[in-house]
Every structure is written in structure tokens, then in C-alpha cells.
User: Which sequence fits this backbone?
């Protein structure tokens, strides 16, 4: 049965995804972007940015008590990061599935980290872990005007919306 437009719109959500400096330097941008794109999610914002250490500390503020926090923030601010917002039904949770477990030694093959990374400190990609973090991270990394609203003509084929 086809979903109606209203039900579809109500399920739409946005998540913050970033390719960290290791993923950018290793030439994995197109590989990673294509996995989200081919799945059927819609890209609504994208930019290449070198975050300051202070910015990295804000992004990872939940982890400030962890022993790896300082090294992690140094690393995130060590080079260009590809910051993105992706939109789709269930994209927050399923985006995390595409990414795979935090430790690439435990990520399933077929996931981004499972296929493309080996150690937890260089796991190439970040994805918001829930609706509140997604909202906070999108607001931290992007100005509202950088989020592009447009119609994706493939949507009726991806979602079966009538
Ligand atoms: N991290 C690390 N050592 C650890 C755990 C995490 O270096 O023991 C890094 C890793 O890069 C991870 C990031 O800290 O992606 C954020 O940790 P989180 O638990 O939020 O994992 P994620 O949400 O990225 O899967
Ligand atoms: Mg996290």
C-alpha cells in the first residue's frame, strides 16, 4: 500500500554525518557519500571545514570525562572534515547502521567502518546517535540558511508516496 504524503512527511528526519580527517585524507569521500546517496537519503547540506580544537570540544562535549577526549579533539581539528546533513525516513538510526559499531574491530563487514577502518581512534566517520543529538549537532555545524530544501524527484520511487 502506498503511503500518503502526510504520513511520509511526519516520518522525515535529519541527521548530522561527518567524514573525519582520516576519511578525507584517505580519499574516501565519494565512497562514503555514495553509500548514503544510493540508499535513498537526501543530502541537504555539505561543506568542507577545518574545525578549531574549541569547536571539536563542543562537538564531543558529552565525552569530556573520557581519557581519549583530548586526543580525539586534537584529531578532529587536525585537517578538513566533510560535514553533512542527510534527510530521510529513519535516517538517524539507520545511518548509524550504515556506519557500523564505534570500534571497527567490532563493526560488521558491509558497514562503512567494517569495510574501511581498522582502529577506534581512526574510524573515519561520525553520525548523530539520536534525535536530540542530531538537532544539536546540525545547529552546531550549520547555519539554518545552509540547509537546502528541495524536492527530490526520486522520492516517490524511494518511499512509494502517492
Ligand atoms: N573513541 C576513541 N576511543 C574509544 C572510544 C571512542 O578514540 O575508546 C573515539 C572514536 O573516534 C569515536 C569517538 O571517540 O568515533 C566518539 O565516541 P562515541 O562513543 O560517541 O562513538 P561513535 O558515536 O562515533 O560511534
Ligand atoms: Mg557518538
Assistant:
Amino acid at each position: 500500500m502506498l503511503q500518503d504524503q502526510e504520513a511520509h512527511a511526519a516520518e522525515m528526519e535529519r541527521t548530522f554525518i561527518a567524514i573525519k580527517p582520516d576519511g578525507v585524507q584517505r580519499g574516501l569521500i565519494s565512497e562514503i557519500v555514495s553509500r548514503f546517496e544510493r540508499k535513498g537519503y537526501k543530502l541537504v547540506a555539505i561543506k568542507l571545514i577545518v574545525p578549531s580544537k574549541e569547536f571539536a570540544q563542543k562537538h564531543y562535549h558529552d565525552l569530556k570525562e573520557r581519557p581519549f577526549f583530548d586526543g580525539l579533539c586534537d584529531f578532529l581539528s587536525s585537517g578538513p572534515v566533510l560535514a553533512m546533513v542527510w534527510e530521510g525516513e529513519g535516517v538517524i538510526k539507520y545511518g548509524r547502521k550504515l556506519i557500523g559499531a564505534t570500534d571497527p574491530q567490532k563493526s560488521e563487514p558491509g558497514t562503512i567502518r567494517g569495510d574501511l577502518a581498522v582502529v577506534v581512534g581512526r574510524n573515519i566517520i561520525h553520525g548523530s546517535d539520536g534525535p536530540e543529538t542530531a538537532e544539536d549537532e546540525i545547529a552546531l555545524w550549520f547555519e539554518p540558511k545552509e540547509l537546502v530544501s528541495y524536492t527530490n524527484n526520486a522520492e516517490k520511487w524511494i518511499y512509494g508516496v502517492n
Summary: Residues 32 and 108 are 16 Å apart (CA to CA).
